[in-house]
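Section 5: illustrative case.
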């Protein structure tokens, strides 16, 4: 996309799987990334025990309205749950499951210590997918990373608390423009 837009660098932002993709892009092409923002993501599946990986996969294979509701924190904005259901309804389940399978098997041993761009990590203190302690461990591995924890927020911080998410992101981008 950067080549198509004739841009040398970009501020790269990714949430959850998108965060892992953004992280991998920044590691592979550090000269193309001005800043990196990782939201509600993980350092890779090697950070989880085999049992935790199995639980992760099973919870995503068997989505229910209640399991979807658990993705959100206690202070999610009105309408966040309906927006979440709408986005999952739009997914092609077969493609989603293939992405899940590949993600779990291939997202291993990311050398976070080699990230060389300013990095912001945003998470919610109620994220049940990637708990706060896992995020803190990831932040400690990234040189000069900044951590923002949104109170009452679950796994989808940009959907649940868009004003707080945008304020944190814009502050970071302004300081690194």
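Designed sequence:
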């Amino acid at each position: 996309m950067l080549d198509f837009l004739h841009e040398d660098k970009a501020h790269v932002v990714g949430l959850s799987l998108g965060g892992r993709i953004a992280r991998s892009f920044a590691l592979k092409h550090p000269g193309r990334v001005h800043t990196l923002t990782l939201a509600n993501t993980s350092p890779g599946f090697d950070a989880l025990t085999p049992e935790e990986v199995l639980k992760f996969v099973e919870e995503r294979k068997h989505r229910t309205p209640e399991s979807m509701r658990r993705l959100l924190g206690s202070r999610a904005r009105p309408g966040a749950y309906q927006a979440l259901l709408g986005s999952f309804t739009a997914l092609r389940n077969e493609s989603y499951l293939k992405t899940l399978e590949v993600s779990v098997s291939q997202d291993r041993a990311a050398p976070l210590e080699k990230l060389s761009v300013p990095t912001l990590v945003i998470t919610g203190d109620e994220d049940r997918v990637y708990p706060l302690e896992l995020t803190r461990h990831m932040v400690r591995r990234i040189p000069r990373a900044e951590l923002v924890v949104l109170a009452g927020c679950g796994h989808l911080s940009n959907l649940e608390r868009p004003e707080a998410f945008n304020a944190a992101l814009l502050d970071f981008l302004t300081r690194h423009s």
